[in-house]
Amino acid sequence: MTKKAPSQAKRSSKPTGTGKATGGRKPRKRFETISSEQGVKSSAPPTHFKSSAPAETYAWARANAKRRAKAAAGKGLGLWKIPIAIISTLAVIYLAGVVVFTNLLFMPRTTINGRDESLKSAADVAKTYEKESSAYALDTTGDNVKLTVKASDITLDYNFTHALANIDRLGAAWQWPVRMFRGNDITVNFLPSYDENKLAAAVKGAVNMANVGATPPTNATITYNAESKSYEITPEKGGTVVDEQSVLSHVKAAISTSAKQLSLGEDALVTPTVLSNDPKLANAKNKANTMLAATQNLTVNDKTAATVTADQIAGWMVLDDTLTPTVNVDAITEWTRGDFSESVDTVGTTRNYTTPYGKEVSVSGGTYGWTVDGAALAQTIANNITAGTATTVQVPFSATAATYNPGSADWPKRYIDADLSEQHARMYNENGELIWESDFVSGNPSVNHSTPEGVYAVNNYKGRNQTLKGVDENHDGQPDYTSHVKYWVPFVDNLVAFHDAWWRGSFGGGIYRHNGSHGCINLPTSAAAELYDLTEIGDVVVVHE
Predict the structure, then answer these.
(1) Helix, strand, coil: what percent of the chain each, to 5?
(2) Measured distance CA(295)–CA(218) in Å, rounded
(3) Which distant-in-sequence residues (6+ apart) come within 8 Å of 66 by Cβ?
(4) Is residue 227 part of a domain?
């Protein structure tokens, strides 16, 4: 048996491949080449591999190349960690700012109603405001108003905590990096609570003082020009009267923003409510001028008694609340029953005439004659003016006489004539013929019981068998007299009448001066009976001196 060389045996006991060593350690890979010329071993890898080289030689080369590529790639990736870290840090800071400036503090450069409240909490701002508000006072001046309202005067509470806590800060908080430079201005309309009755009373007192002697404003209107006989527009004029509600509104607004000074201007004054450029006013002017042209010709028995002119119509015209021209019917009625009636009526006026027996008489008073129906005439005039209708109007009368003859006898030929100076009465028929006469005794003038003069008519109280009761002039609780008469022909209500006086023995002459009646015309019984039968209700009675 041939013995192996030691070097060979050792080399062959260790595998040259990839297996494990007998000692448990993984053998280090190596390349071994033998020079054919020198027979010397070398551990350096060859520069060129021949196809006959072992497969493990290629595996080692590939693994080594991968390690080098991975190391190079790792160095490139590390460069991106720096900007990512910066961006992440900025994001955290930004979001933290959003949270803080939304919920905790007001951001830098924040103003609330013009005051710098940067980096303060809503609670801290509220405490500051509440401390200041306890000494709050609002001084109001202008328009002659002088008013100081203190917090204690009206039990003022601004509710700062609630108002500041409810500010919507989220939108601005998302923009806090920009707003830190641009500014974050917040306006809070604090809603104060206070005793409104106390505030209103204070304002009312100040306004009332300011309005003493103030000039009220005047609305634009239409004005009658007597020269042109037409209406024109008169412009509005401002005044100095202070509007209480306007001042109260200004004061409330000032208190809501904690203002300490309030200066009132023209907007706190009472202003005209109708302006000259109002189209309704132009329409009113045109309508009024149309109404002015509606003159009225008033006639009695086809004769002109009066003419209603433009000047009169203007005096009756008014503008209502809707700027519509109307006529004042009451004012027209006052004229128809007043001045016009006095110029047309004959009732109670003085009549001058000659009696059928030739006596010149002037008589005044009484209830017979012409009386204008003022109400009916006024309504007719008003209707015509409103419609713009110029026309002729026949005057309506509520009482009439036989003829319209102002200043003279307007009764018919049939009438009763009572001559007080002669103490004699006569009755004439439709033809003016005497059909009855008699002496009489009239009222006693010495005790103010004279028979009233005037033109009257027999009325509906005419009757038979009447009991006369005198007025209680001696104040004993009983009528001064009681008399029974058979024939009663009254002409002044149911108080003065022709009647029989059976208790008298004589009539006529001067008996009435010392023993006259209480105002009635006393007749002999037979004469009274005849007159009673002759008279009719409505027969005219003229009593004169």
Answers:
(1) 35, 25, 40
(2) 30
(3) none
(4) yes
Q: Which of 242, 274, 306 is the last residue of a domain?
A: 274
Contacts (Cβ under 8 Å, ≥6 apart) of 212: none
Which residue is listed with tokens 């005790």? Answer: 447
This model's pTM is above 0.85: no
Q: What residues form DSSP beta bridges with 464?
A: 487
Distance CA 246, CA 261 (A): 16
- Taking the chain (545 residues) in runs of 10, the rounded mean pLDDT of each run is 42 43 46 43 46 58 69 61 86 82 81 86 84 87 96 87 76 78 81 91 97 96 96 96 97 89 96 96 97 97 95 96 96 97 96 97 98 98 98 97 95 98 98 98 96 98 93 81 95 97 96 96 98 98 98
Cα–Cα distance, 19 to 266 (Å, whole number): 111
Q: Give me the sign of the Cα torsion angle 84, 90, 94, 99.
A: positive
User: What type of residue is 516?
Assistant: G
The answer to whether position 303 is within a domain reads yes
Residue 316 lies in a domain: yes
- Is the Cβ–Cβ distance between 528 and 447 less than 8 Å? no
Write out the two tokens for 38: 């020198």
What interhelical angle do 244-256 and 196-210 show, nearest 10? 130
CATH number at 378 reads 3.10.20.800
Residues in the chain: 545
Domain CATH for 527: 2.40.440.10
Tally of domains in the chain: 3
pLDDT at residue number 75: 58
Q: Is residue 23 included in any domain, yes or no? A: no
- What's the rounded Cα separation, in Å, for the pair 425 and 440? 7
- Of residues 37, 63, 33, the one with CA closest to residue 49: 33
